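Retry 2 of 3 after timeout on previous attempt. Resubmitting structure tokens to design endpoint.
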């Protein structure tokens, strides 16, 4: 009887360990998924900066004497465009992060529920075993 109980407990511990390992793996995967967009964003930023520098260089190098009002507007537009371009991926990234966090929470909840179910099952098993044992013993004494 005791051996059986011990075995059950050991099984439970093993299951718990497995679940924890699964959780860790999931977390690592999520981290990787989060890092990838960030790296892409950095690349985008670098490219945009390069483009801006090139544009500025062109503006400096090309001796264009245009009428005074437009260039300022043009410059503003040129400066605003990259900013907008930067904001879009950032927003997308934020959305992605939120979704991933929600997913992670769901997974954690699922794991917890599974653990609870396992524990309940084990408790039921133990109770049944104890009752059975008790009953059996009682029967013997009669």
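Retry 2 succeeded. Sequence:
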């Amino acid at each position: 009887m005791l051996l059986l109980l011990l075995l059950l407990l050991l099984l439970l511990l093993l299951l718990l360990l497995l679940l924890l390992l699964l959780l860790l793996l999931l977390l690592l995967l999520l981290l990787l998924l989060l890092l990838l967009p960030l790296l892409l964003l950095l690349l985008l930023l670098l490219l945009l900066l390069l483009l801006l520098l090139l544009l500025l260089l062109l503006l400096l190098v090309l001796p264009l004497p245009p009428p005074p009002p437009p260039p300022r507007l043009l410059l503003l537009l040129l400066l605003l465009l990259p900013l907008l371009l930067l904001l879009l991926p950032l927003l997308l990234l934020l959305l992605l992060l939120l979704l991933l966090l929600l997913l992670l929470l769901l997974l954690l909840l699922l794991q917890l529920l599974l653990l609870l179910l396992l524990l309940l099952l084990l408790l039921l098993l133990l109770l049944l075993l104890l009752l059975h044992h008790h009953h059996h013993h009682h029967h013997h004494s009669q």
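Attempt log closed. The longest helix spans residues 69-141.
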